[in-house]
Specification:
Layout: E1 8-9, H1 12-21, E2 24-31, E3 34-41, E4 43-45, E5 53-59, E6 69-83, E7 96-111, H2 114-129, H3 143-149, E8 152-167, H4 174-187, H5 190-204
Antiparallel strand pairs: 1-8, 2-3, 2-6, 4-5, 5-8, 6-7, 7-8
Helix pairs in contact: 4-5
């Protein structure tokens, strides 16, 4: 991922927080048939490996897992928004797009044993259910769940390399950035407000990237 120094996310804890907040990823692999991509949730185990490990699963009917050669890439996308040059109220400016994203690279290892699959599914559901008013509990002894296990394949990706980018107008003076934040907040949609919040946190942190908040 092309990342000028002013847009780089370099703090590992910041990147890990981003992965937790934006866990629905695009998993890209290469095999004999070329590139294949699947959209799916991935869970970060920050304690497994020097840079953490991603846990996930996909349908057994999905051919992607059968044909993986070399490194896998997981793309995590955060909020994004179009930026109009009219918001800067300054000459010599052009349209752009503000966004945050992280690329995680590593080797995909399949998990097909019952205990390994239960571990991945138990941890994943616990993470995403915790915000529910009445969290659903994963029951490893439920016979229906045991049947469903045969329809999926689990995997782990120990992260070998992380690239984080937060392009948030850091190459503009603070006055312009605050005007952009105001315009984004006025638009009111979720992504615009989220980008404005990232820009605010970047400014408060000194301009070198947003500071993620671990949920």
């Amino acid at each position: 991922m092309y990342t000028p120094a002013s847009f780089a996310m370099s703090d590992p804890s910041e990147i890990h927080a981003f992965l937790r907040q934006n866990g629905f990823a695009l998993l890209v692999t290469r095999g004999g048939g070329g590139l294949t991509a699947t959209h799916l949730p991935l869970l970060l185990d920050a304690e497994a490996g020097p840079r953490g490990t991603l846990l996930g699963h996909m349908a057994r009917a999905n051919p992607q897992w059968r044909d993986v050669e070399g490194e896998a890439l997981a793309v995590f996308s955060g909020p994004h928004a179009y930026i109009s040059p009219t918001w800067y109220e300054a000459p010599g400016t052009v349209p752009t797009w503000n966004y945050a994203a992280v690329h995680a690279y590593g080797t995909l290892r399949l998990v097909e044993d019952r205990d390994g699959l239960h571990d991945i599914l138990t941890r994943t559901t616990a993470f995403y259910e915790r915000a529910m008013p009445r969290p659903w509990s994963y029951d490893v002894d439920d016979p229906d769940i045991d049947k469903m296990l045969r329809a999926i394949v689990g995997f782990r990706i120990e992260i070998a390399r992380l690239e984080g980018k937060a392009k948030l107008n850091q190459n503009h003076p603070e006055e312009r950035r605050r005007k952009v934040m105001q315009a984004l907040e006025a638009r009111g949609d979720h992504d615009s407000r989220a980008v404005a919040e990232l820009m605010r946190r970047t400014l408060e942190a000194g301009g070198d990237g947003p500071r993620g908040r671990t949920p």
